[in-house]
Amino acid sequence: MEADLTAIGRHLKKHRNERGWSLDRVARESGVSKAMLGQIERGESTPTVSTLWKIASGLRVPLSGFLVAEGALQRPTMAPRHHDASGMIVTPLFAFDPALGFEMFLIEMPQGTLSESTPHAAGVVEHLIVLEGVMELRLSGDWQTLSAGDAVRFPADQPHAYRNQSRAPARIHDLIHYPFNP
Q1: Total-model pTM
Q2: Which residue in 40, 51, 55, 137 has the most C-beta neighbors within 10 A?
């Protein structure tokens, strides 16, 4: 099942309206242009995962708040998949749970994938576990290679990037912990 563009737009509008924010305010808080936000709300544009992260961080909501239907029972084999222009495919495994403070994704990275991320909200921590293949993670400007079985935890409130330069696809689990209750 693919992530529905109109659903992403509805989630954006819902989060924006809950705060009483205009598109201008969301643009200021997220660094995403008002025009792009409008296109996303209308279901006219496919946002990259990086763009969704900017919006989620600006609104102080978890990423899964855009990719998972509210109240949906989460089963990894039935979760929506979000494809972005970088080539990355993100499947929510567990939507954000306020009692636990985390959400978890399966990330698939075909050869040639490069996904660069701006800092997430202060205190957000990512935990990566490489399931298959080889990927690279950039932190503090340095690339480090991670292979199947490797795991790393890092503060995600800094610029970071993922890439796959190998021939085989890479698959990783990404558990994201939020120190706040969005």
Answers
A1: 0.71
A2: 55
